[in-house]
Design brief:
Length: 319
């Protein structure tokens, strides 16, 4: 299969590229590292990717550049965009550009292909489109209740992908839930917790730590994404990609500091507007359509992420 991965210099994208090329697919990695929330990290990863045998890399800004070559694929896994609820306040223009306009242009380029040569497009959406979960896990048919510019942009991205499906493009929407693991984005909670704990500083926690998340290890996210890329699915369908058991942030902190062997010191910060009190994935549809459930528990997954942080620090120390 010829697969284009957008956002390939990013956290999830990098892992998806690794898995696809390990499975023997022809991969074109696409990114515009300057558009990343952490451009330095993205530039470094991009240089690594571009130097790798078996992976072609094209620096393309999806919001601006010509996308004909990006659309010339069997499957496009569209992960590029500006992530994160917290960083979306005040960044509405960038959010529209890199999430909404970029997706709109990509879908249009795919639609311009002759009908038999149109790629299937797997699009990254987010649990944030639901707002906060209530007393039961969120199902895909639940009404959307986006509460931040980021969540609203993902709801718009979903609408675009559904419309394109109605016009004959095979699109699939994957609603990712709090992804973690090696190479996690530096703005995300576990990354910040591990780094500050290893520095011997208190962990910056937004709110009182009672909020809970369907934390999902990137290995599981990649597995779901690859099945979604390969299977014949109803066009325009949304699928939750999240762990079925939510964990409270304070319990995750206890686990994380336990693995690190440090005392949990907390520095409370004001809660972030638009941050869900709870995210909770119903995984019935993912099980039924993708044969997928998350298999990595939080203790195992955190140990994996912590090992990565330690390895990076060691590299810097000896490097
Ligand atoms: N990580 C999570 O927990 C999570 C949860 C829900 C949804 N998502 C979604 O999954 C996708 C991947 O997330 P991530 O955590 O890997 O983010 P990331 O920031 O690590 O990766 C996104 C990549 O997209 C690239 N990009 C941004 N704008 C671009 C543009 N105009 N043209 C080309 N490339 C561009 C960035 O340079 C970056 O490398 C995003 O769409 C995100 O919104 C992630």
């Amino acid at each position: 299969m010829r697969v284009v991965v957008t956002g390939a210099a990013g956290f999830v994208g990098g892992h998806v590229v690794d898995a696809l090329s390990a499975a023997g697919h022809e991969v074109l990695a696409v990114d515009a590292p300057e558009r990343s929330l952490a451009p330095e990290v993205a530039r470094r990863r991009w240089a690594d990717l571009a130097a790798r045998a078996g992976v072609a890399a094209a620096e393309v800004d999806l919001a601006v550049d010509d996308l004909d070559a990006v659309a010339a694929a069997d499957v496009v896994v569209h992960l590029a965009g500006r992530p994160g609820v917290r960083d979306s306040w005040g960044a509405e223009r960038a959010i529209r550009r890199d999430n909404v306009r970029a997706t709109e242009r990509l879908l249009a380029a795919c639609m311009r292909r002759p009908a038999t040569l149109r790629p299937k497009v797997v699009v990254a959406s987010s649990s944030s489109v639901y707002g906060s979960a209530g007393r039961r896990p969120n199902r895909e048919g639940d009404p959307l209740n986006p509460a931040s510019p980021y969540a609203a942009s993902k709801a718009e991205v979903e609408r675009l992908a559904e419309t394109a499906a109605g016009d004959g493009l095979r699109t699939v929407l994957l609603r990712y839930f709090s992804v973690y693991g090696p190479r996690q984005r530096p703005d995300m909670a576990f990354h910040r917790f591990v780094e500050t704990a290893l520095d011997g500083r208190p962990l910056p926690v937004f709110g009182d730590g009672r909020s809970s998340r369907s934390f999902t290890h990137v290995r599981d996210v990649v597995a779901a994404t690859l099945v979604a890329a390969a299977e014949d699915l109803p066009p325009g369908i949304a699928v939750n990609v999240g762990h079925h058991e939510p964990v409270a942030v304070r319990d995750a902190i206890a686990m994380l500091t336990g693995i690190l062997g440090v005392r949990a010191q907390i520095r409370r910060e004001a809660p972030v507007a638009g941050d869900a009190a709870r995210t909770w994935a119903d995984t019935g549809r993912a099980r039924e359509l993708l044969g997928w459930t998350a298999t990595t528990g939080l203790a195992e997954g955190l140990a994996d992420q912590i090992a990565w942080h330690r390895a990076v620090r060691e590299e810097v120390r000896v490097g």
